[in-house]
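Q: Hi! First time doing this. I have a protein sequence and I read that you can turn it into a structure. Is that right? Here it is:
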Amino acid sequence: MDSYPPTARTTPLRYRRRMSYDVAVAHAVLDENLVCHVGFVVDGEPRVLPTLQARVGHTLYLHGSTGSRAMLAARGDGLPVCVTVTLLDGLVLARSQFHHSINYRSVVVHGVARVVTDPQERSRAFTSLVDKVASGRAADTRPPTAAELATTSVLAVPLTEVSVKSRAGGPADDAEDYALPHWAGVVPLRLTAGEPIPDDGVTSPVPRYLREPATVWHAAPSLRGRHVQVDPLDLSHVDGLFTALDDPEVWRWSTSARPSSPVELAAIVRAALTDTARVAMVQRDPATGEVLGSTSYHAIDPVNRTIAIGYTLLGRRWWRTAVNTETKLLLMARAFDDLGALRVEWYVDLANVRSQTAVERLGATREGVLRQHRKRPDGTWRDTVVFSMLSDEWPAARSRLTAALSTA
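A: Yes, that's right. Below is the predicted 3D structure, encoded as structure tokens:
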């Protein structure tokens, strides 16, 4: 079935040009939306309730409590319902107040909801509802117990009488209003996920399915070497990081002031995780999992195939060991070999001679100095030395660094 047949209830009286009965379009709107509103009548009184919904094939499943009005009324012959979902795509600002509008996509479903009683169908519905919250979540959590299942109910609504209504585009101003000196246009709107905040006591990192990188260049990798393991940085690493980095020398050249507590360090980590121009990672011991430090990709430019390595903070215990060299080798290998970078960059404080020497040992070329480039935590401005390595220089550097690490 490519389209739903129009019915008296799904045929509008106005704006018929905005209507669609395309099955794929309707399913796409339902799948993108998390919450629906269910309208029904109980004892002659109208009710509209918000609830979680998930589509499986041509059936829409609605989550609820066994004691709710909708669930109780749906027993027996079922409950006639009208289910609606709406996605708001933009604010349409016209020259006249009358023609202000919104861009949207909406679906209306009419049908008779039945209570799902078959154990296998209930299990499938619950899995779909949990995965609708976060794809992959059902496999990453404890299944419901018999007692929990007894307090939860699911309604199933067949997707047979369905319509889609939408609006897109700019304002529909009257011709005589186009000369008015008022701004007009569209303000796009979109729902985006914020930074995941772990619950108290959580020590496991944020799962991959909750990370939404803008491009593959912005995805935090997991890289494993003999001396170090590099993983996506997470707030659950704060305590380990604070222990590893609690040394004034570690923070001496950092663009952040040394934190005096894990709470202050958490604020620094949170800022790194919310910086869309940066991919923050943690360095750990591959044998024990102990946190050793942190590093980042930044200045990410997929169009020009350029990426920088920096924001590195390594615990003093691991200075002059193979950890830093192997970390850079892993990050350069991903940049050049996996991402196809043409250029990898480093930005170092002109006064930080030790780090400049370390970057030069990698095989990078010193290009110049950016004057008064960044502000230090004490308010002074630093000059920044720029280093780079090009893709045709990478094979020789990789061979030399790999040989050096083999004896470390």
